[in-house]
Design brief:
The protein is of the alpha+beta class and about 220 residues long. The chain has 7 helices and 9 strands, in the order βααβαβββββββαααα. Strands 2-1-3 form a 3-stranded antiparallel sheet, covered by helices on one side. It has a two-stranded parallel ribbon with strand order 4-7. Strand 8 (about 110-115) and strand 9 form a beta hairpin.
Protein backbone atom coordinates (compact mmCIF):
# COMPACT_ATOMS: atom_id res chain seq x y z
CA UNK A 1 0.00 0.00 0.00
CA UNK A 2 1.47 3.28 -1.04
CA UNK A 3 0.46 6.84 -0.39
CA UNK A 4 1.73 9.74 -2.41
CA UNK A 5 1.02 13.39 -2.88
CA UNK A 6 0.88 14.43 -6.51
CA UNK A 7 1.23 17.66 -8.37
CA UNK A 8 -0.35 18.08 -11.80
CA UNK A 9 0.89 20.37 -14.53
CA UNK A 10 -0.94 19.33 -17.70
CA UNK A 11 0.17 20.36 -21.16
CA UNK A 12 -2.74 21.62 -23.22
CA UNK A 13 -2.37 18.83 -25.76
CA UNK A 14 -2.71 16.11 -23.14
CA UNK A 15 -5.60 17.87 -21.45
CA UNK A 16 -7.45 18.34 -24.73
CA UNK A 17 -6.90 14.68 -25.62
CA UNK A 18 -8.26 13.46 -22.28
CA UNK A 19 -11.28 15.75 -22.46
CA UNK A 20 -12.00 14.48 -25.96
CA UNK A 21 -11.83 10.88 -24.74
CA UNK A 22 -14.42 11.80 -22.12
CA UNK A 23 -16.63 13.11 -24.97
CA UNK A 24 -16.59 16.68 -23.69
CA UNK A 25 -18.03 18.96 -26.41
CA UNK A 26 -15.40 20.53 -28.67
CA UNK A 27 -16.51 24.06 -27.78
CA UNK A 28 -16.07 23.31 -24.06
CA UNK A 29 -12.61 21.77 -24.68
CA UNK A 30 -11.59 24.88 -26.60
CA UNK A 31 -12.85 27.20 -23.85
CA UNK A 32 -10.98 25.26 -21.15
CA UNK A 33 -7.68 25.15 -23.03
CA UNK A 34 -7.95 28.83 -23.88
CA UNK A 35 -8.64 29.72 -20.26
CA UNK A 36 -5.63 27.69 -19.07
CA UNK A 37 -3.22 29.17 -21.59
CA UNK A 38 -0.32 30.69 -19.68
CA UNK A 39 -1.62 29.37 -16.33
CA UNK A 40 0.14 26.53 -14.50
CA UNK A 41 -2.35 24.25 -12.72
CA UNK A 42 -1.27 22.38 -9.58
CA UNK A 43 -3.02 20.34 -6.94
CA UNK A 44 -2.18 17.85 -4.20
CA UNK A 45 -3.89 14.47 -4.10
CA UNK A 46 -3.58 11.06 -2.43
CA UNK A 47 -3.06 7.82 -4.31
CA UNK A 48 -3.34 4.32 -2.83
CA UNK A 49 -1.99 1.18 -4.47
CA UNK A 50 -3.29 -2.14 -3.07
CA UNK A 51 -1.78 -5.45 -4.09
CA UNK A 52 -2.16 -9.09 -3.06
CA UNK A 53 1.25 -10.70 -2.59
CA UNK A 54 1.54 -14.49 -2.84
CA UNK A 55 5.01 -16.03 -2.89
CA UNK A 56 6.52 -13.49 -5.26
CA UNK A 57 6.47 -9.75 -4.70
CA UNK A 58 7.54 -8.94 -8.23
CA UNK A 59 3.95 -8.50 -9.50
CA UNK A 60 3.28 -5.91 -6.79
CA UNK A 61 6.52 -4.09 -7.55
CA UNK A 62 5.61 -3.99 -11.25
CA UNK A 63 2.22 -2.52 -10.38
CA UNK A 64 3.89 0.25 -8.39
CA UNK A 65 6.29 0.89 -11.27
CA UNK A 66 3.31 1.21 -13.63
CA UNK A 67 1.82 3.89 -11.37
CA UNK A 68 5.10 5.79 -11.48
CA UNK A 69 5.24 5.53 -15.29
CA UNK A 70 1.60 6.60 -15.63
CA UNK A 71 2.23 9.58 -13.34
CA UNK A 72 5.23 10.68 -15.39
CA UNK A 73 3.29 10.31 -18.63
CA UNK A 74 0.48 12.49 -17.27
CA UNK A 75 2.78 15.14 -15.78
CA UNK A 76 2.08 14.05 -12.19
CA UNK A 77 4.99 14.47 -9.82
CA UNK A 78 5.08 11.98 -6.93
CA UNK A 79 6.05 13.45 -3.58
CA UNK A 80 8.82 11.14 -2.39
CA UNK A 81 8.59 12.45 1.18
CA UNK A 82 5.02 11.22 1.72
CA UNK A 83 5.13 7.68 0.40
CA UNK A 84 4.44 4.92 2.90
CA UNK A 85 3.77 1.20 2.76
CA UNK A 86 1.76 -1.07 5.07
CA UNK A 87 1.87 -4.86 4.83
CA UNK A 88 -0.93 -7.00 6.34
CA UNK A 89 0.25 -10.56 7.08
CA UNK A 90 -1.49 -12.93 9.54
CA UNK A 91 1.03 -15.75 9.41
CA UNK A 92 2.60 -16.66 12.73
CA UNK A 93 6.09 -15.96 11.49
CA UNK A 94 5.80 -13.74 8.43
CA UNK A 95 9.03 -13.32 6.49
CA UNK A 96 10.57 -9.91 6.19
CA UNK A 97 9.59 -8.31 2.93
CA UNK A 98 12.23 -6.54 0.87
CA UNK A 99 12.07 -2.79 1.09
CA UNK A 100 10.04 -1.13 -1.64
CA UNK A 101 11.98 1.45 -3.62
CA UNK A 102 10.35 4.11 -5.77
CA UNK A 103 12.36 6.68 -7.73
CA UNK A 104 15.54 5.56 -5.95
CA UNK A 105 14.02 6.22 -2.53
CA UNK A 106 13.01 3.57 0.02
CA UNK A 107 9.34 3.67 1.02
CA UNK A 108 8.79 3.78 4.78
CA UNK A 109 6.91 0.85 6.36
CA UNK A 110 4.16 1.95 8.79
CA UNK A 111 1.94 0.28 11.41
CA UNK A 112 -1.23 2.08 10.31
CA UNK A 113 -2.57 3.88 7.27
CA UNK A 114 -4.76 6.98 7.38
CA UNK A 115 -7.48 7.43 4.83
CA UNK A 116 -9.48 10.68 4.99
CA UNK A 117 -12.17 9.12 7.24
CA UNK A 118 -10.67 5.82 8.38
CA UNK A 119 -7.49 4.60 10.07
CA UNK A 120 -6.50 1.02 9.20
CA UNK A 121 -3.86 -0.84 11.22
CA UNK A 122 -1.75 -3.68 9.86
CA UNK A 123 -3.37 -6.07 12.39
CA UNK A 124 -6.85 -4.91 11.27
CA UNK A 125 -7.90 -3.69 14.70
CA UNK A 126 -10.08 -0.61 14.92
CA UNK A 127 -9.38 0.92 18.32
CA UNK A 128 -7.27 3.76 16.89
CA UNK A 129 -9.89 4.48 14.25
CA UNK A 130 -12.76 4.53 16.76
CA UNK A 131 -10.79 6.73 19.18
CA UNK A 132 -10.20 9.18 16.35
CA UNK A 133 -13.91 9.18 15.49
CA UNK A 134 -14.90 9.77 19.11
CA UNK A 135 -12.43 12.64 19.47
CA UNK A 136 -13.80 14.38 16.38
CA UNK A 137 -17.41 13.82 17.45
CA UNK A 138 -16.77 15.15 20.97
CA UNK A 139 -15.20 18.30 19.56
CA UNK A 140 -18.31 18.93 17.47
CA UNK A 141 -20.62 18.24 20.42
CA UNK A 142 -19.34 21.46 21.99
CA UNK A 143 -20.87 23.47 19.15
CA UNK A 144 -24.16 21.59 19.40
CA UNK A 145 -24.35 22.58 23.08
CA UNK A 146 -23.62 26.18 22.15
CA UNK A 147 -26.47 26.14 19.65
CA UNK A 148 -28.85 25.02 22.38
CA UNK A 149 -27.70 27.92 24.55
CA UNK A 150 -28.67 30.27 21.74
CA UNK A 151 -32.15 28.67 21.64
CA UNK A 152 -31.74 27.40 18.09
CA UNK A 153 -34.75 25.50 16.78
CA UNK A 154 -34.85 21.73 17.13
CA UNK A 155 -34.92 21.29 13.36
CA UNK A 156 -31.72 23.26 12.85
CA UNK A 157 -29.95 21.46 15.71
CA UNK A 158 -30.85 18.11 14.13
CA UNK A 159 -29.50 19.35 10.82
CA UNK A 160 -26.28 20.41 12.52
CA UNK A 161 -25.97 17.01 14.21
CA UNK A 162 -26.51 15.20 10.92
CA UNK A 163 -24.01 17.32 9.02
CA UNK A 164 -21.19 17.54 11.57
CA UNK A 165 -21.47 14.67 14.07
CA UNK A 166 -23.34 11.85 12.36
CA UNK A 167 -21.15 12.41 9.29
CA UNK A 168 -18.08 11.68 11.44
CA UNK A 169 -19.49 8.46 12.89
CA UNK A 170 -21.06 7.10 9.71
CA UNK A 171 -18.20 6.70 7.17
CA UNK A 172 -16.93 3.10 6.84
CA UNK A 173 -18.94 1.88 9.85
CA UNK A 174 -19.89 -1.17 7.79
CA UNK A 175 -16.18 -2.08 7.83
CA UNK A 176 -15.48 -1.67 11.55
CA UNK A 177 -18.95 -1.84 13.17
CA UNK A 178 -19.00 -5.59 13.86
CA UNK A 179 -15.40 -5.52 15.09
CA UNK A 180 -15.92 -2.75 17.64
CA UNK A 181 -15.51 -3.76 21.28
CA UNK A 182 -18.31 -3.27 23.80
CA UNK A 183 -16.26 -0.54 25.42
CA UNK A 184 -15.94 1.35 22.14
CA UNK A 185 -19.66 0.91 21.40
CA UNK A 186 -20.53 2.34 24.80
CA UNK A 187 -18.27 5.33 24.15
CA UNK A 188 -20.03 5.99 20.85
CA UNK A 189 -23.42 5.51 22.47
CA UNK A 190 -22.63 8.15 25.09
CA UNK A 191 -22.09 10.70 22.34
CA UNK A 192 -25.40 9.78 20.67
CA UNK A 193 -27.28 9.88 23.97
CA UNK A 194 -25.82 13.30 24.73
CA UNK A 195 -27.02 14.51 21.34
CA UNK A 196 -30.48 13.11 22.13
CA UNK A 197 -30.65 15.11 25.35
CA UNK A 198 -29.64 18.28 23.54
CA UNK A 199 -31.98 17.92 20.56
CA UNK A 200 -34.84 16.24 22.42
CA UNK A 201 -35.16 13.45 19.83
CA UNK A 202 -34.69 9.77 20.68
CA UNK A 203 -32.29 7.87 18.47
CA UNK A 204 -32.49 4.06 18.38
CA UNK A 205 -29.22 2.14 18.31
CA UNK A 206 -29.74 -1.25 16.59
CA UNK A 207 -28.10 -4.31 18.11
CA UNK A 208 -25.85 -6.21 17.70
CA UNK A 209 -24.54 -4.17 14.74
CA UNK A 210 -23.82 -0.61 15.92
CA UNK A 211 -25.25 1.00 12.81
CA UNK A 212 -24.95 4.74 12.83
CA UNK A 213 -28.04 6.47 14.23
CA UNK A 214 -30.21 8.93 12.39
CA UNK A 215 -32.03 11.64 14.30
Amino acid sequence: MQKAAKTRCHTHGQLHSQLTQLKVPASTCQWITTFLTGREQQFADNTTVIGLIHDDESAYSRMVDEVVLWSNHNNLKLNTAKRVEMAVDFRRSPPALPALTVLDRTVMDVESYNFPDTTISKVLKWDCNISSIIKKAQQRMHFLRQLRKFNLSQELMVQFYTATIESVIAPSITAWGNSATKHDIHRLQRIIRSAEKITGITTPWPSPVPAWPVL
